[in-house]
Structure formats: C-alpha cells, structure tokens
Amino acid sequence: MNASTPNLLEEALAGDESLSGPTRRGRVVVIEDCVETNGGFLLHHFIKRALSPSSSDVVVFLALAQPFSHYDRILRKMGCNLGVHRDSKRFIFLDMLMEFTDGGESIENGLLALYEKIQKGVEASYTSTGSRNITIMIDDVSQIEVAVNGSSNHVLDFLHYCYTLTTEFGCSLVTLNHEDIYLSSDKPGLILQMEHLADVVIKTEPLTTGLATDVHGQLTVINRGVSYGSRSVRAKVRNFHFQVKESIVEYFYPGSRN
C-alpha cells in the first residue's frame, strides 16, 4: 500500500542509492510478521509497486493463504486492478490454496510441481533484453511448511530452487513468513536460512507499549545494501511505526504525531 510523505518504507528499502545501480533486480526480501501485526500489507505494497503503469514488470504470485478475490479487493482500493493485470499476463496468480494441501502427491513431487509452476511463469515473462523485472512473491512460507508436515528441510530446498531464479533470470523474490508460529524461543533454522539469503529483512511487531488506536505496530527494516567491486555499504537498520487504513498505510517515526 502507499504511504504518507515522506515514504519511510521506500527510503528504508532504497538504502544507499549511490551504490544501488540503475535497477533493483535480483533482490531477496523476507517479511516476518506475527499474529498481532499481520504483514500482508507489505505484500500489497510490493504488488502495487511492481505493477505500476510506468513499468512493464511482472509479478508471479504464489498464493497459499488467500484466494485471488482477497488480493483483488484490497488492491482495487489502492487503485490497482489485478484482474486487468492478470489478463495482460503481468500478474501471474498461482492459486495453490487447495491444490497443494490435498495430499495427493509425495512431498518431493508436490514441491517440484510447485517450483515448476513458478519457473514456467518466469520463463514465459522473461525477455532476452532484460527490459522487465520479474518478482516472485510467496504468501506464505509457513503454509508450505504445514503442507509438507513440518519438514523445514524440504521447504528450504524449495526456497533455494526459487533463489536460483534470481540469479538465472534476474528475478526478485519476496516471501512472507509468520515468525511466531514456532514454539521454541530460539529462531528455527528455516527463518535463519531465509534471513541469510535476504538482501532486506522486514519485521512487523506490536508496540512494546501495548495497543494504540492510531498506531498498529512497528516496522524494522534491515537493508544489507549491495556491493560493486570494492564499494559496499554496511547493513542499515530503520525502525518506524505504521497505521493501516482503508486504502493506504501511513509510516511515521515514534513521537512524530501530535
């Protein structure tokens, strides 16, 4: 979703523009949320940004949490018609909400078939000139883990396959995972491995001070930057609050509101 000016989320995602190069291809963004602060609004933000009228970019969206109508309803309020973009092949919606959980295949075959669907969507959208960026989005990784009976190793293998597409085709990869579904207080290997692959990690968390009517939570954006030869930047961490409204999300620093 859009944010109020200044756009703190976009600033945090951009990092050091002097080192970012002309494109933002090949980036891996990991979103971690919890029950109190659902991170779905961040996926909506990335969808709308990728499908901007000024670009020809493509989104390959793997949906395991919600049907197409859910995303279409929300994005329409944001001024983005997913039906139109689906018809024009800019929004490739892979509805796995029921298909992947029917238990009809082995875990390995099910994940392989899932990856092949994504790969097919990427290959169909790829241009040899590299004139368009392709973003793979997964909502959400925890549903894949549930579908494979908690086998995080299988999920990691699947994510590594998706990661290879970022180097082979210059795709971006955006994933959503629920960090608080795990019983242990220590981070599970799946989340640690996803963070290791990520260029940007975005965490949504409730306020430490408790509930507030005009603040829905806080964001932590860890941007590891990029490297070009001998030039590199250190990871930058930004923290700010957010409020989800009907058609926008407002981002602001703590204490900046009267």
TrEMBL record:
GO terms for biological process: tRNA wobble uridine modification. Pfam families: ELP6. Pathway: tRNA modification; 5-methoxycarbonylmethyl-2-thiouridine-tRNA biosynthesis. It comes from the Eukaryota. InterPro entries: ELP6 (IPR018627), P-loop_NTPase (IPR027417). It is found in: Plastid. GO terms for cellular component: elongator holoenzyme complex; plastid. CDD domains: Elp6 (cd19495). Belongs to the ELP6 family. This is Elongator complex protein 6.
